[in-house]
Structures are given as structure tokens and as C-alpha cells.
# Entry
Amino acid sequence: MRKTVLVIDDDDLIAIQLEGILGDFFHVEHASSGSAGIEQATASLPDMILLDVEMPDTEGYTVCRALKSSAATAQLPVMFISAHAETADRIAGYDAGGDDYVTKPFAPDELRRKVSVVLRYQQKNRQLASEVESASKVAMAAMANAGDTGRILNFLREIVGFTGFGDIAEATLKIVEEFELDASIQLRAKNGTLARNHRGFCSPLEESVLSTMSECGRIVDLGSRSAFNYPHVTIIANKMPRGSPDDYGRVKDTVAMIAEAVDIHMSSLELMLESIKRGDTLLSLLNRNAATLREIEKHHNSQRQQSSDILNQLIKDIEDSFYFMGLTDNQERHLQNLARDAVGKAQALYDESIETEAIMKSLGDGLDAALQQEFSGATEATSEDNRIQLF
# Structure
């Protein structure tokens, strides 16, 4: 069954254009004013709303706030459509509760992709909603009588055992929510980012706001919300108690400590992964060097044996040829002595290589021992590495 997209726009041409872009993939409905859009959304509950910002009767931001404040339509994803592309406009859309923001003129493929992405986020969030709500209630009940210090200590004990970034994000959101804050979090690592809020996955617009805030100062106050920024984490806490200076200072200090603890833990995880990778590289190098030394030793021994066989055969061939050369006994003995002397010198030369062979064998044995120790450590490291699930 196709998803339903409600277009709220006073421009009929824009509505027709959107129908042409999305009509083959979604069922598209149209409301020509903000008030009519609110009524239609409440009545039909579409899967998603495309909302124009500038309308004569009711501004799009106001329409979005009305939809989000109603229990019937609060969960409907809203994507703003606007000709304005400034950061302030996007922030206004985020403040109004929007899930994404697309500017006019828009490319058909980009618009279809954005609509599909928002709908996928909505579906994931619905699946996670009941689990997150249940987990939050259990966590709040368990810590209801604990003080701020006790909560932080419990949180620190908990995340020490977490190697999955999803688990770290969930645990962080839970403890922040225990201070009656509505929060979102972005975790950053070398291989990507993860953004979550108490509903599940962050919308594209919310994630872009988190990325923008990460480039600001350590703590940034924005009205009733505060952003806490560290190299690996950004937390935006909504509903900060600005009306009570004492509570506000206490909560801000607490969330800052939580964010710093998460940043330190994530730094440790990255160092652990880098150490494992360096160990793998060293292990591979040791393995290759040991194999090369074994091949050199094998080739050296083979050459020694082949040379010995060639010289012995030469002596035999010389002695056999005496019958046909007509040499005197003295001449034969002279040639035999020359040949045996040459063989003796060649053998002595190879005997001098015994010390080199001993060094090579010692080096090879040392590499084998190191390899055995590294393989033993690598087994434990691989087991640890398998538990570290980044994204």
C-alpha cells in the first residue's frame, strides 16, 4: 500500500509539480491553506506532510507547531518547503518541530529521496518507541531516589562496559532524561556519526543542527535549550530550567560532566581499535619476515647440498677419465690432489657459513616465538574487537 503525502501549499502550481514528482510513488493529497491543512491532516492522518513556509493565512512554522502540539498529529513527520536556504530558516524549522527542510527549486530525485528517508526514519522510530519508553520508565523508577552524584556514578559504571556506540547513546539519553530534559545526541568517530533522540533516530534536519552546533563553543545556550560540545559528542538538551538559576546551574554542570565522560569513553574505544589495527599490522609483518627467513635458510641448505654433490661428481669423473688420458701415476696423483684440495676449500667455505646459519636460525626461532605470542594475543584482541560495534 502506497504511503500518503499531504501537500500544504497555497500555490496550486507547486502542488501540481509535487504531484508529478511524487505521484508515481506516493498517494498525494493537497490542502491550499494552513488552516485547511491542519483540518485535513487531523482527519486523514497522512504518513507525511510537505509544508510551505510562506502562506497568506497561516505561516508554515505556525502550522507545524499546531500539528506537533496536537496528540492526534504530533507524530506526523513534517518536511518544510521554502525558497529560503539560510541557516536561520533551518533553525526556525527545527524549532517549530520539522523533520527536514528542502529549498525551492528542488530536484525531483533529491525530493523523492528525502521523502523516502524521512518516512524510513518515522517507521524506525515507531518500532523503537515502545521499547525506548519502557526502558526510560524502568531507568527513571530505578533512580528516582538517587541524587545527582549517584546517578552520574551509576552512569559511569554502566558505560564502562559498553563498546557499541548505539548502547552509549541510549544510556546517555536515559540519564539526561532523568533530569526532565528532552535531549538529542550525536556521537562522532573516524568512520562516521550516530545521531539519536528519545524517540529513536534523529531526523535529517535535527542531525544537521547537531552537526552545526558541534562547531560552536563548549557550552552554548539557546533559549530553553543548551548544547554541550566535545570532540566526540554533542548533546542538545531541551527544556532547560531557565526559570530557576540554581536548578539551571546544577543541571548544566551535570550534563556537561555526562558529555565529557562520554567523550573520554569514546576516545578510549578509538584508541583500543587503533591498537588492535597496529597489532594486526605487526603480526602480519612478523609472519612475512619469518616466512622469508625460513625460505632463505631452506634455499641456502639446498645450494650447499647441490654444490657438494657437484664437486663429488667432479672428483669421480676425473678419476674415471684417468683410464683414457694415458697419464703417469704421478700425474694422476697430482690431479687427484688438486681436485681434492679444491673440494676441501669449497667445503671449508661452506663450513664458515655455520655461524651465519646459527644467526639465521636464532632469528627465525625468535620470530616464531614472537608470532606464537602475538597469535595468542590476537585471539583475545579479535574477541574484544568483535564486541566493538561502531555504527
Observations:
- The chain has a mean pLDDT of 80.
- Residues 229 and 332 are 96 Å apart (CA to CA).
